[in-house]
Design goal:
mainly alpha; two-stranded antiparallel ribbon; 247 residues; two-stranded antiparallel sheet
């Protein structure tokens, strides 16, 4: 076939193609051009490549982008799995654990602390004090077992305070244990949440920076590939029309 001014040579197989059915390397994207030069080191930017071979390189680039996205997504998923497995601390229900391990003395201390910090205890205590002082001060019913200044009453109050204070402290110690366990639970929950949020941010960043642009680029390639296929079909129809029917 005689090469005309409107014909060029494909750098891949050396076949003569029309100028309309080929593309110059300078017109291609850098990554696509580098893929062609990798297989054909002597290729120049002024050389042409036919649509058939260009379709092959476009499909290779699409496959490379998809595989790169899959590898990156797999790597992020592996990091998320390792982060979740590295923390083997089991989140516990603090109230349930403490309730199951309560002793009789701890239950008594909780009840005493709860009653000692209520208005009911205050009213009962005031009623006992006033009744004690009225009975002994006014000698009601002929009762007079603790004259003024009520030394026995002071002794009783001191004994009550001496017994009540350590019991309340026992209940406060249990409250401190509960707070410590809850703080430890909160720490591990926050640590796990931080790991997950960081990896989720990495996933979102990867999606926004790589996968979405790659998806749009793949769609553009698909449109270009469809255009090239349509052009080849048109050339085949034109060649079939020019070929005389066999007799």
């Amino acid at each position: 076939m005689t090469e005309t001014m409107s014909d060029v040579t494909c750098l891949v197989d050396g076949e003569t193609i029309s100028l309309e059915s080929g593309l110059q390397l300078a017109e291609l994207e850098t990554d696509l051009r580098n893929r062609i030069k990798r297989d054909h080191p002597r290729a120049k930017t002024t050389d042409y490549i036919c649509g058939h071979h260009l379709l092959k390189y476009r499909l290779e680039r699409v496959d490379a982008m998809i595989n790169a996205d899959l590898k990156q997504t797999k790597k992020i998923n592996q990091k998320l799995t390792r982060a979740l497995q590295s923390d083997d601390y089991d989140i516990i229900d603090v109230n349930e654990v403490l309730s199951d391990n309560l002793t009789f003395g701890q239950k008594v201390s909780d009840d005493v602390a709860r009653f000692g910090g209520s208005w009911g205890f205050i009213f009962i205590f005031m009623f006992v004090l006033l009744g004690w002082m009225l009975v002994n001060g006014l000698h009601l019913f002929g009762v007079n077992f603790d004259n003024y200044p009520y030394i026995l009453l002071n002794l009783v109050l001191s004994c009550v305070a001496a017994i009540q204070a350590p019991i309340i402290m026992m209940s406060q110690n249990r409250s401190a244990d509960r707070d410590r366990m809850m703080a430890e639970n909160d720490y591990h929950v926050n640590l796990k949440s931080e790991h997950e949020l960081r990896l989720l941010h990495a996933k979102v960043d990867h999606l926004a920076q790589n996968q979405v642009p790659h998806t749009m680029e793949v769609e553009r390639f698909q449109l270009e590939i469809l255009g090239e296929i349509r052009q080849e079909l048109a050339e085949l129809r034109e060649a079939a029309q020019k070929t005389p029917p066999a007799r």
